[in-house]
Fold this protein.
Amino acid sequence: MAGRNNTLTRWIGDMVDDTKDFVDDILDRAGDVEDAVSDVSQISTQLATLSTAVENLTTIVTTLAALQGATAPVTGAVGAVAGAAGAAAPLAGAVGK
């Protein structure tokens, strides 16, 4: 009888081990969720900063488009670059604000 495996005891031991691993995984995921929820204020601040930056860029692009529409059309690649550089010159001070 000494060489016989007790499969019921082994099965119960495996069940206990698997259950312990399962509970550990659940607790780890719960900790990750708590960390993610606590970072919401930081994300909100970053989104507000991003929104302000997008509004500033929209204003600059709108101004550049208006200036480009006010200038006479120049043909060729060199004229287009010169026209864009000339239109952007008045905005050099506005970008730093």
